[in-house]
Amino acid sequence: MLRAPYGEKNKMAINLKKPLKENIYAVPGIKLGFTEAGIKSKAKKDLAIILADEGSHVSAIFTKNQFLAAPVIQAKQNLKLGAKKKAFIINTGTANAGTGDLGLINAKQTCELVAKNFNLSAKDVLPFSTGVIMKHLPMQKIEQGIQALTSNLSNENWIEVAETIMTTDTIPKAYSKKIVLADEEIIVTGIAKGSGMINPNMATMLAFIATNASITSQILTKMITDVADESFNLISVDGDTSTNDSFLLISTNKTKVAISEEDDGNYQKLRDAILEIAKFLAQAIVRDGEGATKFIEIQVANGKTREDCVEIARKIANSPLVKTAFFASDPNLGRIMAAIGNAQVKDLETSKINIFLNNYLFAENGALSKDYDESIANEEMKKNEITLKIDLQNGLEVRSFYTSDLSYDYVKINAEYRT
Amino acid sequence: MLRAPYGEKNKMAINLKKPLKENIYAVPGIKLGFTEAGIKSKAKKDLAIILADEGSHVSAIFTKNQFLAAPVIQAKQNLKLGAKKKAFIINTGTANAGTGDLGLINAKQTCELVAKNFNLSAKDVLPFSTGVIMKHLPMQKIEQGIQALTSNLSNENWIEVAETIMTTDTIPKAYSKKIVLADEEIIVTGIAKGSGMINPNMATMLAFIATNASITSQILTKMITDVADESFNLISVDGDTSTNDSFLLISTNKTKVAISEEDDGNYQKLRDAILEIAKFLAQAIVRDGEGATKFIEIQVANGKTREDCVEIARKIANSPLVKTAFFASDPNLGRIMAAIGNAQVKDLETSKINIFLNNYLFAENGALSKDYDESIANEEMKKNEITLKIDLQNGLEVRSFYTSDLSYDYVKINAEYRT
Questions:
Q1: Are A220 and A260 spatial neighbours (Cβ–Cβ below 8 Å)?
Q2: Between A107 and which of A70, A124, A166, A270 could a Cys-Cys bridge form, CB atoms 3.0 to 4.6 Å apart?
Q3: CA–CA min distance B351, chain A (Å)
Q4: What residues 83-112 of chain A have any CB closer than 8 A to a CB of chain B?
Q5: Contact B126, B83 (CB under 8 A)
């Protein structure tokens, strides 16, 4: 029998629990604060700040949604004035999206309030919001909250800030790693939020990763694209891309040796460390997907291009029929074929495609396997961790994409989100 | 206050009930048969035939899914041999898709069995299947079923055949109309099935429309595209396009006057009648959408192109977040904006967009209306018939698109479809 031709090295073993304080390392040059500003109706942490020392660099990737939230517009404007930023202010409770001119005024004023309270220039502040769309920022609460943040700063507050930025997330997402570059200790620490409205470009989420490594602003910009394409852009919960997605990469530039070229051997090492953090956060978002009962890796192999592999995986991941079949542990596997056929990948030869459910080959040469045994497929579908492997036999590219199933609870969570 | 600038003439008033026999007219030159062949596990009608008199023309549109079902491949091959077809055999219970060489052999043999039993040439038979993917046709049952069909033919069997081809549909879908062209009575009658796996190009469905009008094969081909683009290609239940979608238009050519040119005044009249049937069937499919509790018309107006309007409407229609908000009657209307922004329509000016929920203007110039009153929006969301009107203020095109909400029952139906 044919064997699935590729491995599972991209999948991170993630225990969906609150991370332990001792596993999340402080990043020299980064301080964090959080408070309950009363933006959310319930008494919850809802306003956070990340402060980076003078001389830090930042690069950012924002949502491709054409309806940009006000904080995204403001952050992009401020970034045009240079990559040296010092403060990142994040609120939950409202996304400040679809809020028109008043939303823009409020985003700008938020930056000014941070600048005033922390002795900065407003252009060195970037704002981020997440929550309900078409709801204004309560500016009085924001003002009081920002004042409160000044007295609650620490370089140890990563997990607390990860908690502060949660919306429908059930656990805070944080991950940390130490490597050595040129005899110096490099720390990379990241946090993220996201659970619904998750689809590549960007996944609906906020993610902040910081390192003490020294890296030029130009190379940092290259790095963030490299990393996003192989992490946050390879996940989907529900196919919806939000108005507020933002991924920020900060270097506090504390090491003596600076990475200034892409072909520097150290670039690759640092990239790998950052990518590991990003992959962890991306996959944790899917595992914590709204109503998710299963974690599904979709490996598409031997495609002509990366885009072909990703497009096929995304169609499968976003098919409500495939997702409900996974939820029910029903090997209604023809739906996977239908999804592949809907990807409209050029020059696809459907009669060459082999599909494996975990390691069970159920479709061979584009059709039901001759010795298909439903009872085996049924057993495989019952697992909570499923790898679907699609061998296109059409090229050399391979990509893994991550998604969750569609359960009653997804409907429940999203039907009742605001109540 | 701004008023929604356009009407609702495209929406058909549909009472989701089994049609009355007296409202569905026989089409001269068409006979239909049905039987219980035992393909479905329960005792249900599952095999039907439509027979067209010698000299009839047929045109067809098939799914754009790259994984073509065997009957679709066979039907396309037979159509290449000429537009004069005489028999259309339809089974439910299995889609005969993802079934490889054996599936093709079975589809071909089905045509041969029909040819043998009805004294036809196999190339004049087109096969259609709907049901579970990756399941073979039970050929012995098909053979016996086809024999049974020979003794159960009538030109009155439209509703029974509409029932026969149902899968998760809850009611049979049929509609009929009489018009007069050049002093002759023209009848147009159509049936369709479809409930889940519904998305344009084509909607997941089978539809058969027949008329006694005389129309050249070439003009019939033009007609079917015209009609499909403004009916079946403007609906979505779940964004999934199936492997088996087929829409067939048959003319039995019984009238003296023939329509042989597109600019013939009679072309337009006949087209309008056929389009009315097709719109009815398309909208009935959405109203009978799996788990649907609401019928939602999405009117996108003043777009630059038809494609812009349809793409925006489709993104809204296929957003799980929008669909669950409709299900919950929750005016979480920012999700509609996010969906518009995800359509990636060129040159969209988000700051010009006005959005109406029924006739209530909730978003003006791309942002929450200044006098937005949630209690009004809440009342509007509670209705079972909702029209969402999006004014792009960007051009002159307008299209209506139809969809349903995403309920617990959608998940239930699709999680348990095969059990």
A1: no
A2: A70
A3: 8
A4: 95, 97-103
A5: no
pTM of the model: 0.85
Query: Beta-strand (E) ranges in B182-324?
Result: 184-193, 206-211, 214-215, 235-236, 246-251, 258-259, 295-303
Instruction: For residue A136, list chain B residues with Cβ-Cβ distance below 8 A.
Output: 368
Show the tokens assigned to A322.
């495939």
Q: Does A158 touch chain B (CB under 8 A)?
A: no
pLDDT of residue A203: 45
CA–CA dist A82, A76 (Å, integer): 10
The answer to whether residue B2 neighbours chain A at the CB level (below 8 Å) is no
Q: What is the CA A279 to chain-centroid distance, rounded?
A: 8
Residues whose CB is less than 8 angstroms from the CB of residue A251 and which lie 6 or more positions away in sequence, other chains included = A56, A57, A58, A210, A211, A212, A213, A214, A215, A220
> In a 3-state reduction of DSSP, which class is residue A145?
helix
The angle formed by the CA atoms of residues B367, B371 and B375, to the nearest 5 degrees, is 100
Contact B54, B100 (CB under 8 A): no
Which residue in A has a C-alpha nearest to residue B328's C-alpha?
A415
Q: Are A149 and A47 in contact (CB under 8 A)?
A: yes
Residue A229, C-beta contacts closer than 8 angstroms, at least 6 positions apart: none
Query: Which residues from chain B sit within 8 angstroms of residue A240, using beta carbons?
Result: 319-321, 335, 338-339, 342
Residue B244 corresponds to which tokens in the numbers above? 């088996």
Calpha distance B190→A309 (Å, rounded): 40
Cβ–Cβ under 8 Å, residues B252 and B52: yes
Residue type (1 letter), B341: G
Q: Kindly report the CA angle at A170 between A166 and A173, in degrees rounded to 5?
A: 60
Residues 377-406 of A with CB under 8 A from B: 406
Instruction: Give the number of A-B residue pairs with CB atoms closer than 8 Å.
Output: 218
Query: Is there a catalytic annotation at residue B387?
Result: no
Phi, psi of A122, rounded to the nearest 5 degrees: -60, -30
Task: Name the one residue in this structure whose structure tokens are 């408070």.
Answer: A35
Supply angle C-alpha A392, A395, A400, rounded to 5: 60
ipTM field: 0.82
The one-digit pLDDT tens for each residue of chain A (419 residues) are 455 555 556 778 787 789 999 999 999 999 999 999 999 877 899 999 999 999 999 999 998 888 899 999 999 999 999 888 899 999 999 999 989 999 999 999 999 999 999 999 999 999 999 988 888 999 999 999 999 999 989 999 999 999 999 988 889 999 999 999 989 999 999 999 987 665 544 445 899 999 999 999 999 999 999 999 989 888 877 777 778 889 999 999 999 989 988 877 899 999 999 999 999 999 998 888 878 889 999 999 999 999 999 999 999 998 888 988 899 898 888 889 989 998 989 999 999 999 999 999 999 999 999 899 999 999 999 999 999 999 999 999 999 999 998 888 878 877 765 54
Contact A97 B337 (CB under 8 A): yes
Q: How many CB atoms lie within 10 A of CB A412?
A: 16
B374 inside 8 A of chain A by CB? no
Which amino acid, one-letter code, is at A357? Answer: L
Q: Is residue B401 within 8 Å of B321, Cβ to Cβ?
A: no
Q: Helix, strand or coil for residue A94?
A: strand
- In angstroms, the CA A397 to CA A302 distance is 5
- Return the closest-CA partner of residue A248 out of A44, A58, A4: A58
Radius of gyration of chain B (CA): 22
Q: Do B241 and A335 touch (CB under 8 A)?
A: no
The single residue of B94, B204, B211, B387 carrying the catalytic annotation is B204
- Structural domains in chain A? 21-287 (3.60.70.12), 295-415 (3.10.20.340)
Judged by a CB distance cut-off of 8 A, whether residue B196 touches chain A is: yes
B338 → closest Cβ in A243, A339, A363: A243
Kind and range of the H or E element at A222? Answer: helix A217-229
